[in-house]
Amino acid sequence: MVCRFGSRVVVFAAVAAASLFVTGAVGYAAETVVLGDDDSLLTGIPGKGAVTEDQLQKWLDNDANHAELEIKLPKGLDAAKANIFVPEDNPMTRAKIELGRQLYFDPRLSSDGTISCASCHHPDKGYGFDTQFGVGVGGQQGGRNSPVAYNRIVSKAQFWDGRAGSLEDQAVGPIANAIEMGNTHEACVATITEIPGYEQQFTKIFDDGINIDNVGKAIAAFERAIVTGPTPYDYYQPIEQFEKTFDDIMDELDDEPELKEKYDELKKAAAEHPMSESAVRGMKLFAKKARCAECHAGANFTDEQYHNLGVGMDAEKPDLGRFDVTKDPKDKGAFKTPTLRNVALSPPYMHDGSQKTLEEVVEWYNKGGHKNPWLSDKMKPLELTEQEKKDVVAFMKEGLTGEFPKVESGRLPSDAKKKTDKKSDGKKMAKDAGRGFLGVTCNASDVKVARVARVLPGSAAEAAGVQIGDVVVKVNGQKVTTYADLRAALKDSREGEQVKLRVKRGDEAKTLSATLGTLSAEK
User: Fold this and answer.
1) For the chain, what is the mean pLDDT?
2) How do strand 498-505 and strand 471-475 relate by DSSP bridges?
3) Which of 332, 390, 489, 517 has CB atoms 3.0–4.6 Å from 323's, for a disulfide?
């Protein structure tokens, strides 16, 4: 039977096809990769423990690992194909992504060997972190919440204020930030050069070897490979599109077998990825009464623009956001719209981490934000009912949550250094090789106590039950007063060593036992 609505079928088919997979403009590729579907892309070089030079050599000798990848995106995110950004001078390859993975999780890039990119953007924390502000070396606290590190392949400007024009620029910024990683680019490069596994990879992957620009390129390649998988919304949306396209004949679908079959397929897929009735109502509110889609638009649920929502504008010295970059008065207090994909996995929210829950976020928008001279004209009271607010939250939690790709966070090149006759280098080797690693940082502002500000996921501290807010008072019976005392008490410790921690948690005192890990393999 010939379909009477051929032209509309063609249009709908084009829309449906666009929601499957798209090709990024990254040039000729010997291999096509659907980001998020290929587990081998981010799970590291096969093996366990530190990555050995022999394993690296075998990996690097495989020409397939150096082939430029033709990038495709998963269902849902694929509609953002026009926004794919991979610089011509930094094509994605398996070898480069793997090098970037290692650098991303390696705390040795920081001045004291405690902070990596993952310290503030960890996969176990939704590629953000669950503290209000980022915490860097020495327990120093930044002034902004850690933005998420996924779906960056469809975004150019980075950071809350957009000061970095590319992921390459963003990736190396924190290294030289005094609060974040507290290093210099020169010292970071020197550290990397001393690690044979890194020199081995940089020499093979980049014509000019190890330099800070290539560090940024490798990390950026890894970050571009981190994407969110399909969500329930991505299965419901095609149904809405179908019903809109064929609105006038929905009652006659039984007379159109091809259309009926397609419609049934869409409904079956949605049923296999269900949302609650509340979430479905929230989906409709999101685009209409709640007006979320005015800024959280497109496949990645962001317009990539900057808006003043009134957040933090009642402070004595408010963070002026984008204005500090452009010096344009209209940008005062404006911050970049974040993606809402997987938003439920990365609390707290807003650029200052002031909203602990999505419920608080919706309430902020419902009241129209905080009035100030530069408040976005999009910020107006929404007059949502209590049920409508719950529905919008349900949609964000259920409808916009998909899977992250599997990623290896622990396998890094060994700390073993090259042979040297320099005594100073020999001392450094003895100091670093096998050094024990607890996996906590403390607030530098707490000058009289060692109060835990961060517990690194997968660390010895996490396994021992250390919690944010704990005050460490003793290590193996030795009194600890400050963060410096804590570090001094552990400086001669070794991998696998058992340490007893005495901590105060509120009004309670607890003794915890930790088996120290290593800097090179800590998650």
Assistant:
1) 88
2) antiparallel
3) 332
Which positions ≥6 away from 220 have C-beta within 8 Å?
90, 100, 152, 166, 167, 168, 170, 171
- Residue (of 111, 71, 118, 117) closest to 91 by Cα position: 71
For 62, half-sphere exposure in the C-beta direction (CA atoms, 13 angstrom radius) is: 12
- In this predicted structure, the answer to whether residue 242 has a pLDDT above a threshold of 50 is yes
How confident is the model at residue 520, as a pLDDT?
A: 42
- Give the DSSP H or E segment for 213: helix 212-224
CA geometry: angle 308, 311, 312, nearest 5 deg: 120
CB contact set of 8 (below 8 Å; sequence gap of 6+): 245, 246
Burial class (CB in 10 A: 0-12, 13-18, 19+), 247: exposed
CA distance 451 to 482: 8
* Backbone torsions φ then ψ of 355, nearest 5 degrees: -105, 115
Quick check: helix, strand or coil at residue 151? coil
CATH assignment of 434-518, among 3.90.550.10, 3.40.50.150, 2.30.42.10, 3.30.930.10: 2.30.42.10
The mean pLDDT value for 332-355 works out to 98
Tell me if the pTM is above 0.85: no
Q: At a CB cut-off of 8 Å and minimum separation 6, what does 21 contact?
A: 34, 72, 73, 74, 75, 78
